[in-house]
């Protein structure tokens, strides 16, 4: 019988493989008259030698490295980084280190504005161009996303006794989260909201009170509304979501073409490689709207396969997290699952017209080297947690069951 970590590995490999195939399929294009045409077209050899295959191999390597990492040695319950007891916790515990890490994440995000280093695509500065051959680039928001999850899990573990308190527990953590998420929102509202939401889930699981969070909900909504109002293209996206057919050739074009691709697949799909919307109709078909191409070419079966893989991944991850005894690793696992789950739900909602258009990719499917590698590494940590979890002996289980049953008078 497969272990939970092995099931996660199979799901990750299946999603990456499907991603490579569908990214190459979505990359097909009609060549202009008179242009030089590759006679072979899309072939198994061209897919194997494609850049997406290289990203997949690197992502698999990142998953394997994380899966075999000695997580218990560094983040076990008795480690100095994750103290066993936090009953006597000073108010400033961990804040200096957390502030320095946050400053580092801010510096990474700020690199997109450095001339000659930042790369602008579609009027957004979200990438760092690496000074190496091939034009490779890195997306700093992905680094900030996963770095903040680890930071909040560590901070909540260090300050476990203070987390139920407002000023000394939740407030400092939310300030650090707001700094990172706010900087991301300047260029990408959807990813910034995702980062803040996933970090909030970790803090709630770490002991913060829901009532305290409710006090910040109006502030968060006002910040989101302000970020939309000051950006005309975000306002157009919101109005297009409310009525895309009011401007079918303008702001509503993207959503209409996405829904046309999803509906065009019908039951069995048009067949792999035989989609129509990717030929100049649907923008961002290899990245944010790859699921629409999957629906068009593979039909309901392809859509169900994607949803089923994500569901299996999340359910298996929950099984691992529920068995975890290390407070830090438990919170880290919750953060990983919350990030992957929320990101997938948001993307699927956008592609199917259930949410306004956002620049959020589908995890391990949509084209993107940084996202694939870091997401695979994060899920590899879940596999490492499962691999190193001690198996309770039969006597221990019987003793635990006996202690759970109240004795008769």
Q: Which percent bin holds the helix content?
A: 55-70%
Major sheet: 3 strands, antiparallel
- Largest beta sheet: what is the strand line-up? 1-2-3
The outline comes out as globular
Class from secondary-structure proportions:
mainly alpha
**First-residue to last-residue Cα separation:** 43 Å
Beta-strand portion reads under 5%
Q: What's the mean pLDDT score?
A: 85
Number of strands: 3
Q: Give, in order, the helices and strands.
A: HHHHHEEEHHHHHHHHHH
Q: Which runs of at least 5 residues are low in confidence (pLDDT < 50)? A: 393-409
Supply the number of helical segments: 15
Task: Round the Cα radius of gyration to an integer and report it.
Answer: 23 Å
Tell me what the structure shows.
The protein has 409 residues and is an all-alpha fold. Helix content is 62%, strand content 3%. The chain has 15 helices and 3 strands. It has a 3-stranded antiparallel β-sheet, with no helix packed on it. A hairpin with a 2-residue loop joins strand 1 (118-121) and strand 2 (124-129). Helix 3 (51-67) runs parallel beside helix 14 and helix 6 (140-158) packs parallel to helix 8. Mean pLDDT is 85; it is low at 393-409.
